[in-house]
C-alpha cells in the first residue's frame, strides 16, 4: 500500500507569554528581545499512514491529538518539518466547525459541499442521502444555531461522509450522539473503510478503537510515544493510565518492545474460527500471547464460557487438563478446540486468562473478549445437548 499521509520531524510550537503586555513588548522591542517561551504542542513527530488503514489516536486531554489532526487537515500549519497528505480529506473535528449558525441545515449542506469543491448540481445528487442519514426531521430547515449538540453531530457526520473522502477524520464528535446514532455512524465508517477510505479516529472509548482500527498511535505531552498494531498500543496506553509515568521509561518509539517489569506477559489476540456456528460443529479459539521474562513457572491458560448475563457455563484450563504450553520469553499461539460443540441456540461469550500457580496468580485476563452465536433448526431446549436415548 502507498502512503497517504507522511509526517517527518514535524513540530508545532506556540509562543507563550506571561501577559498581553509581554506580547506587546516583544512585538515592539527594537532589538527583538524575547518575552516569551516556546511551548511544543507537538515535537519531532514522525508518522506514516498507508492508504486504506484505519488508525486510532490515543492520548490524554491536551496531549496533542487534535493539533495533529488539524495540521493534517490544513487548519493549522506546522512550525517545522514536513507533512504530505495525498488525498481529499473530510474532517469532523469539532461540532459546528465550518457551519454558519445563521444558515439552515440545508443551506449548510450546500455551503460545506461547495467548500469541498462540489458544484451545486453534484450536491443536488447527494442532498437527499445526507438528509436521510442525519434524520433530524424538519430541523433541516431551521438555523443550525437552534440545534442541540446531538443534531449538530448528526448533520456534521452526515455531510462529512457524503463527500466521498479519501481520508476521513473523526475527533470525538460522535461522543455527543445517542447510542443508536453512534452505532449507525460506526457501521457507516466500517462501510467506507471497506471501500478503501483511510480513517483517523479519536475516541476516549479504547474499546471502540480496538474494535474499529487496524493500528493505533499514542501521543502524550506532544510526543509520539508509540505506534503499531492496535491491541499492542491500546494495552500500553491502558497501562500508562493505571501506572502513570512509572512505565514511561519502558516505552520505545514505534514498536512496544519493552513492558513494565511487573508485567510478566499479556494476551495479544483472541480469534474464533467462526462467530456463527451450529451445534456439533467444530469451534476453535486461537490465543496468541507474549511472555516478557525468561520463563513463567506453572503457567496456564484458561478459557471460560458465559451467557450474556454472565451465567457461568464451562471453564477448562491447561493445568486441569494436564497440557503443557509454551512458557518462555517470546510470542506463542495456542488453540483451544471443541470438536463437537454441545451448546444449543443462543449467544455466548468467551473469557480468556493467562495464569501461574494453578490459577492463583492472574497475569492477564480478557473478559468478554469474543462472542459467538449458536443457531440451529429446532433440536431441543436448554443450553446443552446431552447424548441420550429412549427406551420403551
Automatic annotation (TrEMBL):
Coiled coil segments of this chain: none
Keywords in alphabetical order: ATP-binding, Nucleotide-binding, Transport
Name of protein: ABC transporter ATP-binding protein
Gene Ontology terms, MF aspect: ATP binding
Entry-linked InterPro entries: AAA+_ATPase, ABC_transporter-like_ATP-bd, ABC_transporter-like_CS, ABC_transpr_TagH-like, Bact_Polysacc_Export_ATP-bd, P-loop_NTPase, Wzt_C
Family label: Belongs to the ABC transporter superfamily.
Taxonomic superkingdom: Bacteria
Keyword Transport: yes
CDD domains assigned: ABC_KpsT_Wzt, Wzt_C-like
PANTHER family in UniProt: TEICHOIC ACIDS EXPORT ATP-BINDING PROTEIN TAGH
ABC transporter domain mapped to chain residues: 5-246
Pfam families for this protein: ABC_tran, Wzt_C
SUPFAM superfamilies according to UniProt: P-loop containing nucleoside triphosphate hydrolases
Amino acid at each position: 500500500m502507498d502512503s497517504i499521509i507522511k509526517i517527518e520531524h514535524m513540530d508545532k510550537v506556540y509562543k507563550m507569554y506571561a501577559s498581553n503586555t509581554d506580547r506587546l513588548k516583544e512585538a515592539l522591542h527594537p532589538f527583538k528581545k524575547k518575552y516569551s517561551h516556546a511551548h511544543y504542542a507537538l515535537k519531532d513527530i514522525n508518522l506514516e499512514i498507508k492508504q486504506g488503514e484505519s488508525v486510532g489516536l490515543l492520548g490524554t486531554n491536551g496531549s496533542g491529538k487534535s493539533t495533529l489532526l488539524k495540521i493534517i487537515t490544513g487548519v493549522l500549519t506546522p512550525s517545522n518539518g514536513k507533512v504530505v497528505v495525498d488525498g481529499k480529506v473530510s474532517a469532523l473535528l469539532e461540532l459546528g466547525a465550518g457551519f454558519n449558525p445563521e444558515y439552515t441545515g440545508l443551506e449548510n449542506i450546500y455551503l460545506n459541499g461547495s467548500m469541498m469543491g462540489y458544484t451545486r448540481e453534484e450536491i443536488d445528487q447527494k442532498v437527499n442521502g445526507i438528509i436521510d442519514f442525519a434524520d433530524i426531521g424538519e430541523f433541516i430547515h431551521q438555523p443550525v444555531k437552534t440545534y442541540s449538540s446531538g443534531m449538530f453531530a448528526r448533520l456534521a457526520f452526515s455531510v462529512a461522509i457524503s463527500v466521498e473522502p479519501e481520508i476521513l477524520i473523526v475527533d470525538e464528535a460522535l461522543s455527543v450522539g445517542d447510542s443508536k446514532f453512534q452505532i449507525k455512524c460506526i457501521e457507516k465508517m466500517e462501510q467506507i473503510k471497506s471501500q478503501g477510505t483511510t480513517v483517523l479516529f479519536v475516541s476516549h472509548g479504547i474499546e471502540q478503537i480496538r474494535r474499529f482500527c487496524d493500528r493505533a498511535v499514542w501521543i502524550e505531552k506532544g510526543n509520539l510515544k508509540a505506534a503499531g498494531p492496535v491491541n499492542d498500543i491500546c494495552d500500553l496506553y491502558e497501562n500508562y493510565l493505571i501506572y502513570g509515568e512509572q512505565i514511561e521509561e519502558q516505552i520505545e518509539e514505534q514498536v512496544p518492545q519493552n513492558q513494565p517489569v511487573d508485567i510478566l506477559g499479556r494476551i495479544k489476540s483472541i480469534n474464533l474460527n467462526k462467530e456463527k456456528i451450529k451445534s456439533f460443529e467444530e469451534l476453535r479459539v486461537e490465543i496468541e500471547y507474549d511472555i516478557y521474562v525468561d520463563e513463567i513457572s506453572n503457567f496456564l491458560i484458561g478459557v471460560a464460557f458465559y451467557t450474556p448475563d454472565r451465567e457461568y457455563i464451562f471453564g477448562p484450563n491447561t493445568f486441569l487438563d494436564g497440557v503443557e504450553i509454551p512458557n518462555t520469553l517470546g510470542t506463542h499461539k495456542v488453540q483451544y478446540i471443541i470438536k463437537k460443540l454441545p451448546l444449543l441456540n443462543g449467544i455466548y461469550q468467551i473469557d480468556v486468562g493467562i495464569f501461574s500457580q494453578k490459577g492463583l496468580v492472574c497475569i492477564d485476563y480478557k473478559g468478554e473478549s469474543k462472542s459467538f452465536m449458536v443457531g440451529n433448526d429446532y433440536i431441543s431446549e436448554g443450553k446443552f445437548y446431552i447424548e441420550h436415548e429412549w427406551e420403551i
